[in-house]
Write a structure and sequence with these properties.
Layout: H1 2-16, H2 22-29, H3 33-45, E1 49-52, E2 55-58, H4 60-81, H5 83-86, H6 96-99, E3 103-106, H7 117-125, E4 128-133, H8 138-151, E5 154-160, H9 161-166, H10 169-181, E6 185-189, E7 195-201, E8 206-214, E9 217-224, H11 227-242, E10 245-249
Parallel strand pairs: 4-5, 5-6
Antiparallel strand pairs: 1-2, 3-9, 4-7, 6-10, 7-8, 8-9
């Protein structure tokens, strides 16, 4: 059936909401009558289409097969779009559930910081943030600080222990003051990810995302508000938190 679905997807789509006789199928698909004849015969043989009076219509088999085919194609397209980011992370780091329907922003090497604009805007509106910090940048401080000022953001962060040790006293004090104002929590552990995981909560929705790093800075950002994607991110965050040591707690 897979081969037939690949070859005859357009016919299934044409019949999805419009049971039709063959001449109308030809008009809507802009293919030859002979191609429609062969395609309909193949689909009837596999139980995807049936003829009722003079019209051809999808069966439940055909409807579900088309849905599965379109979902497969969307997933493949999403994987291809995210390819530059996936190349930067370890095998088996992400779930397809997280990628389905996600927004994928790939960094422009000439202006890599611009790729953070959309995720920064999401942080601005959030009321609660959970995140990992395998790296810390100036913009990281600024985004959280702005959201604390604007919406009273509270946050819980799990930072890489090597990154924390690399901060000088002034940077640590700035981070401590930021978390104090955010009524936040800081934990540390060894993080081997090449990406940060973050979950943002709002009054009426949630977002989850990853920010992918590379040797040149940022590779890009993937984020999603689908419940399955948020659930995946929470599970990954909790795994990293489970091994972490509490440093500061201002709750």
């Amino acid at each position: 059936m897979e081969r037939v679905l690949r070859r005859r997807r357009d016919l299934l789509e044409a019949l999805r909401d419009n049971p039709s006789p063959k001449p109308e199928i030809v008009d809507r698909t802009a293919v030859s009558r002979s191609t429609v004849d062969r395609g309909i015969t193949e689909l009837v043989d596999r139980g995807c289409v049936r003829k009722v009076d003079s019209q051809f219509r999808l069966t439940e088999t055909g409807r579900l097969a088309l849905e599965a085919r379109l979902e497969y194609e969307r997933a493949i397209d999403q994987i291809q779009t995210a390819g530059p980011l996936l190349a930067e992370i370890d095998l088996e780091s992400l779930s397809l559930e997280f990628l389905r329907g996600a927004t994928v922003n790939v960094a422009d090497p000439r202006r890599p910081w611009k790729v953070l604009d959309q995720s920064s805007a999401l942080v601005d509106e959030a009321t609660t943030m959970y995140g990992t910090g395998p790296a810390v940048f100036r913009k990281f401080y600024d985004d959280i600080d702005r959201s604390v000022e604007n919406h009273g953001l509270t946050c819980e962060l799990v930072i890489d222990e090597a990154v924390f040790e690399s901060l000088d006293s002034a940077q640590r004090e700035e981070l401590r003051e930021l978390l104090r104002r955010a009524e936040g929590t800081l934990l540390r552990t060894e993080l081997t990810d090449s990406f940060a995981i973050w979950i943002l909560e709002y009054a009426d929705r949630e977002y989850a995302g990853i920010t992918v790093y590379s040797s040149g800075g940022f590779s890009g950002v993937i984020y999603n508000d689908a419940p399955n994607a948020v659930s995946w991110a929470r599970t990954q965050y909790r795994k990293r938190k489970a091994s972490a040591e509490l440093l500061w707690d201002f709750r």
